[in-house]
Amino acid sequence: MTQTEAPPFAILLREFGVRAELTQEELAEQAGISPRGLAALGTGKRLRPRRDTVRLLADALQLP
Predict the structure, then answer these.
(1) Is the pTM here over 0.85, yes or no?
(2) Looking at residue 13, what is its pLDDT?
(3) Are 33 and 53 in contact (CB under 8 A)?
(4) Helix 35-43 with 9-19: angle, nearest 10 deg
């Protein structure tokens, strides 16, 4: 990966989840999304999350 490449969403999601000390199930519950949908994002099976899903996750992770 070069310096100009952003890490994939799945990697960022896992990193922020670990930092917040939340399990995948806890994060899904706090964000109000399905655990299955979150798992698909966390593994990279879903590559393009919807904007509202990203906002829900950011709020649950208390990201600015």
Answers:
(1) no
(2) 93
(3) yes
(4) 120
